[in-house]
Backbone:
């Protein structure tokens, strides 16, 4: 009997046992799911020098002598077979030694030098690259992701060496359906796509924005265990309005102004149709689209395709987790969240996304009806570049309109249309000051001084803008000016602050990487048809509850990045559970929706863990095509 037939008979047997409720938890836990990653030999159709030049399969000096004979590698490598540990030890020693030498002159930051060295490893040995990244995630996440990825994107035309991902441009209109078949992988689970129009807080970087797609997918692999052979970074190049890039002879993208209106929509429509035609079950994460398109595209596709926008929904989820953590840190129950007064600086896609999610969360806690939803609106004061947003604002952004303060309200509060951030903080005395403005230093001394009068026993400051230079304030300024008892969180990493007398001011990194890998993995493993608000809410609440009571009372409201794989596993399980409850789950491979619904908490966690790829060298078997 073939292995496939045995597996099919086993699956059929288990399903029948499940239907009659006679299967035990131990049987589920011990079951060898056929979706398990990295535990089966891999068939390759190349050998000799070709396999050494393929980063997906290259093991370098770790090829065993048996594999060297089987793949015609004997004599092409030094004779000493090295273990994974020895390979990593050699690489890490080289990395520490080469950091200085890899700098491109004295103005080149060390972080970018580290990125260059890691990227070279990625180019030649993908498995080892992810092994190094996972083992040192706290040190290297800021290199492959924010803040260093912003610097990479700014310099990508000069850094580009080896193609990674796909580029769809305005010049490819009418060709995208055939273009997707140029990608070598028959299965793609995860796509991160950008149009480069709003990379972090750095503005329009055009085609160079693909660096953010690559960085995000590195974290999908490292944190969520998505198989790296089944991810695809994508850049949609519709031009750029960055005059510097338009005049740069070395720029790699289209040197024409951005498409707008229907022409722009037609390009994105064609791309979505093409990728979902070839890979019907793929998940597409939209990343760093400018605000005017972020919401429109999300609403256009979210009910039809498996997609979400991390800037709108992921940032919102992390912020909600932090806001709920702030309530816990005040010694209150999370159900008290609707009483929080929140001043939000920034009304772009991220800011509005957080506002919508926070309002829905409050409404759910207040009864989840229309009256509760309307009442929750009054807890927010939104300030943009023109000041406080009120109903008197001319040409108000439709997405910001629900949060515009009413004229009578602001009159009673001593405020007005366009009031400055400092004025708003001074009069409102908020529990939370939340920054999503991309304006570095916006929380000035005047603003922070005003927050000292907060009615909260423990006011929270969230300086969430990326990269580091765009953070609204530093933790040192926050603790020094406002006081030792505040809560502080930022989007990019900062060190903790020594407050003296053995006390520490904790700087929490409220990074999207706590959520988007788990959202993607949970959507994949549930087979959910769409990514619902409920699934996103479940992810946020899971993250909010991850910290212990003792940690939260100390002011630690986000976990350490070193725990990212465990966090992602928990978040993914919460997403799957919600997808099942909403009847959105269709199952994944040999695990159908009914089976998923029968798994208890421990079994669900085991199912997720067993489907997370690990960077272990597979046994390679050559087969001629």
Residues:
């Amino acid at each position: 009997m073939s292995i496939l037939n045995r597996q099919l008979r086993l699956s059929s047997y288990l399903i029948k046992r499940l239907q009659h409720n006679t299967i035990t938890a131990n049987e589920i836990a011990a079951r060898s799911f056929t979706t398990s990653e990295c535990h089966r030999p891999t068939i390759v159709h190349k050998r000799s020098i070709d396999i050494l030049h393929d980063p997906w399969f290259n093991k370098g000096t770790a090829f065993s002598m048996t594999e060297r004979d089987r793949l015609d590698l004997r004599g092409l490598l030094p004779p000493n077979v090295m273990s994974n540990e020895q390979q990593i030890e050699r690489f890490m020693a080289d990395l520490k030694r080469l950091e200085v030498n890899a700098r491109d002159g004295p103005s080149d930051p060390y972080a970018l030098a580290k990125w260059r060295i890691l990227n070279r490893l990625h180019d030649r040995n993908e498995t080892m690259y992810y092994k190094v990244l996972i083992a040192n995630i706290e040190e290297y996440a800021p290199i492959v992701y924010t803040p260093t990825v912003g610097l990479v994107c700014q310099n990508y035309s000069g850094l580009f060496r080896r193609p990674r991902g796909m580029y769809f441009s305005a010049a490819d209109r009418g060709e995208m359906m055939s273009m997707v078949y140029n990608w070598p992988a028959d299965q793609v689970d995860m796509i991160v796509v950008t149009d480069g129009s709003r990379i972090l807080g750095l503005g329009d970087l055009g085609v160079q924005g693909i660096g953010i797609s690559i960085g995000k997918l590195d974290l999908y692999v490292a944190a969520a265990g998505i198989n790296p052979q089944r991810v695809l970074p994508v850049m949609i190049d519709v031009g750029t309005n960055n005059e510097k890039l338009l005049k740069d002879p070395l720029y790699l993208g289209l040197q024409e102004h951005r498409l707008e209106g229907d022409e722009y929509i037609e390009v994105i429509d064609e791309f979505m149709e093409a990728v979902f035609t070839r890979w019907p079950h793929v998940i597409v994460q939209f990343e760093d689209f400018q605000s005017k398109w972020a919401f429109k595209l999300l609403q256009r596709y979210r009910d039809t395709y498996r997609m979400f926008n991390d800037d709108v929904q992921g940032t919102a989820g992390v912020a909600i987790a932090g806001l709920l953590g702030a309530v816990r840190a005040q010694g209150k129950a999370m159900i008290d969240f609707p009483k929080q007064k929140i001043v939000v600086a920034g009304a772009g896609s991220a800011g509005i996304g957080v506002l919508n999610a926070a309002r829905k969360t409050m409404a759910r806690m207040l009864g989840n009806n229309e009256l509760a939803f309307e009442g929750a609106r009054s807890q927010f004061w939104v300030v943009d570049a023109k000041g406080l947003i009120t109903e008197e604002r001319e040409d108000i952004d439709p997405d910001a309109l629900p949060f515009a303060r009413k004229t009578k309200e602001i009159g009673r509060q001593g405020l007005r249309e366009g009031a400055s951030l400092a004025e708003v903080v001074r009069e409102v005395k908020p529990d939370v000051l939340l920054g999503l403005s991309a304006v570095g230093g916006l929380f000035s001394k005047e603003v922070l001084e005003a927050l000292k009068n907060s009615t909260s026993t423990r006011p929270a400051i969230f300086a969430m803008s990326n990269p580091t230079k765009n953070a609204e304030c530093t933790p040192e300024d926050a603790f020094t000016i406002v006081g030792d008892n505040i809560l502080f969180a930022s989007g990019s990493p900062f060190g903790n602050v020594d407050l003296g007398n053995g006390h520490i001011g904790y700087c929490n990194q409220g990074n999207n990487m706590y959520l988007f890998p788990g959202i993607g993995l949970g959507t994949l493993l549930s087979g959910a048809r769409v990514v619902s608000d409920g699934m996103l809410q479940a992810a946020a609440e899971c993250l909010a509850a991850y910290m212990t009571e003792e940690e939260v009372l100390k002011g630690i409201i986000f976990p350490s990045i070193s725990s990212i794989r465990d966090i992602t596993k928990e978040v993914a399980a919460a997403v799957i559970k919600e997808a099942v409850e909403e009847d959105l789950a269709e199952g994944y491979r040999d695990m159908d929706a009914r089976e998923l619904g029968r798994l208890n908490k421990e079994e669900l966690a085991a199912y997720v863990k067993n489907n997370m790829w690990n960077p272990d060298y597979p046994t390679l078997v050559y087969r001629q095509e």
Notes: Residues 1-35 have pLDDT under 50 and may be disordered.
